[in-house]
Write a structure and sequence with these properties.
Layout: E1 4-10, E2 14-20, H1 27-34, H2 49-61, E3 65-72, E4 75-83, E5 100-107, H3 117-130, E6 137-140, H4 147-155, E7 159-165, E8 170-177, H5 178-185
Parallel strand pairs: 5-6
Antiparallel strand pairs: 1-2, 2-3, 3-4, 4-5, 6-8, 7-8
Helix pairs in contact: 1-2
């Protein structure tokens, strides 16, 4: 059983939402997304459906990492992951602080892109993360070659900490405080409906 954990209405593009992910039921859909050429930086280009299901079962079972399916006007449109960077992805590579939350997101491939859609998605994901009062900073580590996402991150308030070497890539470690996000976007908790907080997740 899946459930919606967050909703946000964009003035121009309508309702966005996040629901819990079902690793098996959603695997075929996610497989189409993560193996698309435009998702090269997701690093799952050669995965089959079984491997995608296995990866998201692993995330679902992890105490410090979870994944959610994003909806636009009720239809699947993006993927979001949340993690504790002190325990996942950035162990030993990041000066962790209380209230840090790591984030990944991926928009579904489309032949008819909508102007501003990706920015609306990252704004939705960020309002979801900051709806938890315990969240002080959002941390990201995109591939250094992913210039499009660097520009998008900057537009919503991220500042670059520096380049780091991860086993699978060279990454541009960046962080965004609540104040910088709200200043950059004008978005805040008033734009959202109740969100799942980290207290709703396995400890």
């Amino acid at each position: 059983m899946t459930e919606v954990v967050h909703r946000r209405v964009d003035d121009r593009l309508g309702e966005f939402a996040l629901r819990t992910l079902d690793p098996d039921a959603d695997a075929a859909l996610l497989h189409r997304w993560v193996t698309h050429p435009k998702a090269a930086f997701w690093l799952m280009q050669d995965a089959d459906v079984a491997r995608v299901a296995q990866e998201y079962r692993r995330i679902a079972a992890h105490p410090h990492h979870d994944a959610f399916l994003g909806l636009h006007e009720g239809r699947p449109a993006f993927l979001a992951e949340r993690y504790d960077p002190a325990r996942v992805e950035l162990v030993g590579l990041h000066d962790a602080a209380d209230g840090d939350v790591g984030m990944h997101f991926l928009c579904a491939p489309t032949d008819a892109p909508v102007h501003g859609f990706t920015r609306a998605v990252i704004t939705t994901v960020m309002t979801w993360l900051f709806a938890d009062p315990a969240t002080r900073r959002v941390v990201v580590e995109p591939d250094v070659r992913n210039t499009a996402v660097h520009a998008l991150n900057a537009a919503v308030g991220f500042t670059v900490v520096g380049q780091i070497a991860k086993p699978e890539k060279d990454a541009l470690l960046s962080v965004c405080t609540r104040a910088r996000f709200e200043a950059a976007t004008g978005a805040g908790a008033t734009d959202t409906h109740p969100a799942a907080t980290r207290g709703d997740l396995p400890a």
